[in-house]
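Quality-control log, excerpt.
Job 1 of 2 completed; input and output follow.
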Amino acid sequence: MQPNNSVIMQKPLSELISDQLKQKIWNEEIQFGERLLETEFAEHYDVSRSTIREALKILESEELVVSQARKGTYVADFTDKDVNEMIELRTLVESHAFMQAMPRLEAEHIQKLEEIVGWMKLRADEKDWNGLFDLDMQFHSYVVGLCGNARIIKIYDSLQVQIRTFLMHLDRYYSSPQAFYDEHTQLLEALVSNDVHTVNGRVREHIEYVETKLLGQNNDIKI
C-alpha cells in the first residue's frame, strides 16, 4: 500500500508540488475559493515561480483550480450542479464497469480488494476519513480497471481528482467511518457473489445514498 519512492523521485518537481497542493485542499488546509499566490508557494517550497506556475497549470487541467485574467488563480468551487453531474456520471460508469469486471475477477483480484478493505477497517478504527477516501478511490479504480473497456478506464482515470475532491465532504453524511467501511465490505461481497443484480444494486446504493443525503441539506453548503 505504500508508494514506491523511486517512482515518486522520477516525477517532475512541479508535479510533486501539485500533488502536495491537492492533499492540502483535500485536508482542508486550503479552502474552496481561496486564492493561490505564486510568490507565497515559491517561497514555501523554495522553488521558482515558473515551477509553481507549472504546478498550478496541472491543477487547472484537472479542474481543481481556475485561473481568472487579471484576478489570479483560485481553488475551484463545486456547485450543486457539479455534485449532481458527478453522482450521475459515477452511477453510470461504475455500475456498468463493476458488472463488466465481475466475471473477470480472479483469486488474485479478490485478494487485492480484500487487502484494500482490510486497510479501510484500520482507517475506520482510527476515524481517519482522508485515509478512507483515498482507499475508496483505490477500491473503485481497481474494479473499474478490470472492466475490459480501455475507453471507460481512460474516462474514469480522467475523473480521479474530481471524484476525490467530491469525496472529501462526505464524512458529514455518514453516521461513522464504520458505516462507510461497511458499504465497501458489502460491495466486495456483492462482487464475489457473481450476481449481476446484487452488484448493480450495491453500486447504485453506495453512490445514490450520498445523493439523497447531500441534496437534502437545503443547499446550506457549497462543495
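Job 2 of 2 completed; input and output follow.
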Amino acid sequence: MTFFYLLLALGLAVGLNHPGRLWRVLAQVGAAAALAMMAWSIWLANGDGTFALRAAADVRPLLLNIMAGIALFVVLLLLGLLPAQWRRQVEVVPDWNQRQRWGQIARLLHWTSAVLMLAALPIGLFVTVLTPSPERGDFAAVHNGVGLAAFGLLWLRLLVRRASPGPASPNFAARLNKLALYLLIAARAVSGLALASATGAPVLGLHLPQGVPLPPARALHQWLSALFAAAFAAHAGAVVWHHFALRDRQLIRRMLR
C-alpha cells in the first residue's frame, strides 16, 4: 500500500502541473476522488463500531470526523473549480527554479510531499483508535512508509532549492511557517522511527532494534504531529485567503499551473 500512495501522490503532482488541460482536469478529479474515499472510510468507522469502542472523552474520533468534513469541503471546491481549470491557459514552466516562480522539479516534489503528508495524518490518527489486530498493523506499516517517503522528499526539495533558489517568501510569517514545516517533517520522521522501534512496527518491511521507551516516544510523536497539522493548516489557510479573499492569483501560481 505504501507504493500505491507514492504512485498516487506522484501521479497527482504530475497531472496538476501538466501543460495539457485534460491532464490537469483528470488530476483534479482524481484528487477529489481520493479525498472522498478518505472521508468515506472515516464515515464507515462511525457505523461499524470502530469509534464506538473508544471512551466518551476520547477526542480522536471527533478529530477524524472533522478531517472528513474538511475533505468533503475540498472535494466540492475541486469539483466546482473544474470549469475554470478547463478554460485556463497555462504558461511554459522551466525545469529549474527562477527568482519569480518555482520550476517544474520543485513543483512536483512539493505536491508529491503534500499529498503524502495529507495521507499520513489521518492514517496515523486512525491507527491510534484501532484495537490491536492485523488491520492495525497494515495501517501502521503504510503510515510509517509514507512518512519516511515524505522525509526523503524533504531532502530532495532542499537539494533542488540549493541548486536553484526559488521565489522569496512574501513576508516573515510565511518564512517562519515554511521553516516550521520543514523542521516538523524531519522531526516527525525521526520520532516516528523511535515510535516504531518502541512498538516493533515494521518500517518498509524492516523491524528496527527495540529499546526506545514507548510512553515518551508516543507522546513526542503525537505532539509533533499536532504541531505539524497546525502549521500545515496555517499554510493552506494563508494560500486560500490570498487566492480567494485578497484575489492574489499569483501566489498559488508560483507553485501550481
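Post-run check on job 2. The longest helix spans residues 214-245.
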